[in-house]
C-alpha cells in the first residue's frame, strides 16, 4: 500500500457514500481551480454513479477523487462494448505528487477489471498524465472556426429534405433515436445512457452569456417527414462595431444521409447577422471538409480527444473487427495491469469475420506496450506511425505493415461529447 507522509495516514481509496458527494465535488472544484454554476453542478450530481466514485481521505476531508461512468463504446466493426468512462479525477493542491492519483488509478482499474469491462476511456485535462497507467491516445478531433463570408456549403441537389425548427426538449426523443442509430457506425461514439440527453440539451440562462437559447433544427424527408438529421446550436449577436457580428456555436450535427448533412451545414452557414460558425469537436474525417467551398476557411485545429486503456487485452482484441486479414503474435508489456503482459495470438480473416485472440508461447511478430495497443484500438492511430516514433518494434519483417493495415478502419474514431 502507498502511504501519505506520516501526518496524513495511509492512502486507501474507498467508495463514496451519496451523502458525501458535496464535499467530494468541492474537492474536485478546488483541484480544478473552478466553480461551476448550481445548474451544472446539479446535472453532474444526478449523473454521478456514486458506487463507482472513489475518494482518498485525509482525516474527514476528501483530498483525492476519481469517478467512472458505465458507458458503452462503439469499436471498429459495429460492436458497442461496455467501457468505464473515467471522470472527475482530481487531487487537492496540498496533497499532490505523493501518489494519490496512482492509488486511485490502481483501485479503479482493479474495480473495472473485476466488473468485466475490457476497456476504460477518458479525456485528459493534460495529455501527459495517463500514459503511465496504460492509456493511449486513440482519437483526435477538429475544432473549426469558420469564416462564413468565405466558406459556403451548397444546398443539396434536388432538395431531398425539409428543415424545421423544433423545441430542443420536445424533439429530444426523436433526435436521440437517430443518434443511437449512428453510434455503431463510428468507433469512439458513446451510446447515450439514460439521463445523458440532458448533457446534450444543457442550456441554463446563467451560462448563456447573452446568447440566445439553444435551438434545434430538424432535417426531415420531404416525402414522408422521416427524421434524417438534426443540428443543435446557439447564436450570439453583437452590435458593438456599428453592425451585426454574430457567432453561431454548433453543439451537434447528426445526419443519417448526405442530403441531410449538406442541408444542415448550409443552414448553419447561411444564418443572417452572423459571420463566424464555431464547432468545438468534429471527426477528423468529417464530410464537412469535402462539402465546404474553401476548407482553409474552416480554420481547423486538431486536438487530442479519447484515450483508451485495454483492461483485458484478449477480450478487447477479440471484440473488434479488423480491416484486413491478420495472423500475428503480439508481445504486450503492461506494467500497471500485469495480467495483460505476455504474448497474444491475434487471428482474423478480415472485416466480415469475428477475431480470435488467445495467449500463446509462439515467437512474437510485434512488441509494444498496452498503451500503444490502446492508441491503435479504435483504428485512428496507426501502428506504423507509432513504430516510426520508436514505440512499436517489428520482430518479423512485414508484420508491421500487415498489423497496421488490419488495425486501421475506414471511418475515423470520434468522441461525440465530453464527460
Ligand atoms: C479524466 C479526468 O478527469 S482528467 C482531470 C485530471 N485532473 C486535473 O487535471 C486537476 C488538476 N490536477 C490534479 O488534481 C493532480 O495534479 C493530478 C490528479 C493530475 C495528479 O495527482 P497526484 O496525486 O499529484 O499524482 P501522483 O502523485 O499520483 O503522480 C503520479 C505520477 O504522475 C505524474 N503527474 C502528476 N500530474 C501530472 C501532470 N499534470 N502532468 C504530467 N505528469 C503528472 C507525477 O509526476 C507522477 O509521476 P511518477 O510516477 O513518474 O513519479
UniProtKB/TrEMBL annotation:
InterPro entries: Acetyltransf_17, Acetyltransferase_Eis, Acyl_CoA_acyltransferase, Eis_dom, GNAT_dom, NAcTrfase_Eis, SCP2_sterol-bd_dom_sf. It holds the Pfam family Acetyltransf_17. One of its GO terms (molecular function) is aminoglycoside N-acetyltransferase activity. Residues 11-168 form the N-acetyltransferase domain. Acetyl-CoA binds at residues 89-91, 97-102, 125-126. The active site is at 130 (proton donor), 419 (proton acceptor). Signal peptide: none annotated. Keywords: Acyltransferase, Transferase. It comes from the Bacteria. GO terms for biological process: aminoglycoside antibiotic catabolic process. PROSITE patterns: GNAT (PS51186). Gene3D superfamilies: 3.40.630.30, SCP2 sterol-binding domain. Belongs to the acetyltransferase Eis family. Homohexamer; trimer of dimers. This is Putative acetyltransferase. The lineage of its organism: Bacteria, Bacillati, Actinomycetota, Actinomycetes, Kitasatosporales.
